[in-house]
Design a protein that fits this description.
Layout (H helix, E strand, L loop, with lengths): L1 E2 L2 E13 L4 E16 L2 E15 L5 E11 L1
Antiparallel strand pairs: 1-2, 2-3, 3-4, 4-5
Length: 72
């Protein structure tokens, strides 16, 4: 996206691994870039989130999520 002569980008890569009939693991990787945040300086931000979901039955499941995010 070109906003006020700066470039902003968000890239996401998501993977899903169905371990067995009950467990599913999802990994979400993010990279954010802004070419001009202040006085011509650029910035990068990175993040990773991991989800674990357990299927209780056909109607219910339970999940947990962990995340690390680094923003300059």
């Amino acid at each position: 996206v070109d906003v006020d002569d700066s470039v902003r980008a968000l890239s996401t890569l998501t993977t899903v691994w169905k371990v067995d009939d009950r467990w599913t693991l999802t990994n979400d990787l993010n990279w954010i870039y802004d070419s001009d945040i202040q006085a011509g300086r650029s910035a990068n931000a990175f993040g990773v989130a991991q989800y674990a979901t357990y299927k209780i039955d056909d109607m219910f499941s339970v999940g947990v999520r962990g995340e690390v995010y680094v923003d300059q």
